[in-house]
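Before the break, one more example. Copy the sequence into your notebook; we will annotate it together after we see the structure.
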Amino acid sequence: MRTICEAYATAAQEESTRHTICLDEKTGIQALEALRPLRAMRPGQIEKREFEYKRHGTQALIASFDVTTGTVFGTVGDSRTEADFAAHLEQLLSRDPQGEWVIILDQLNTHKSEAAVRLVDHYCDLQLELGVKGKSGILQSMASRAQFLEEPTHRIRFIYTPKHSSWLNQVEIWFSILVRRLLKRASFDSSAALRERILDFIDYFNRTLAKPFKWTYKGRPLAA
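Here is what the structure looks like once it is written out:
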């Protein structure tokens, strides 16, 4: 917890040029279509919403929240596989290939994948002998891959949140904004419409609402 809070504090310093990113997935976002239109408020009557709906599948959002600027980069698709995570990560890093990156994320297995190791090795130009997944070297196990990705001397490094501590990841705050402002009251007639609306909301948020969150927790234990 202290390591994560120190990363947030460093990101808040004006002279910092490091990209501090909070990354996570929001999966199973349902494309629900109300069967009947909304009845707007009238004098003496509250708004009435149809409780029956039709399902049009789900989408998975992978989002990266920039702690310094408050902006969000997101990709939306049908799944959140290792390949999906690697594609999102590569698009993120390509925005500043020579920059310094600290990426805060949870301990999902795809966050400790072979694809992630190879991307970090490539962008850091380490040219290491990575070994073989499940057999030898850095790629041997999830633990050895995580150790490589957490290496503090790397220009691109991961910081994993402790288990059951998703509240330490600032992108979770942004997910709650997404739910309240878009998902909670919307109706979507297809999964494609849901995907488009999410991406449009991210663009709108970055243009009009984005600002860094004020993080006050210092990383000290919450209980004796």
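The chain has one domain: 2-34+51-208. The mean pLDDT is 94. Try to locate both features in your own notes.
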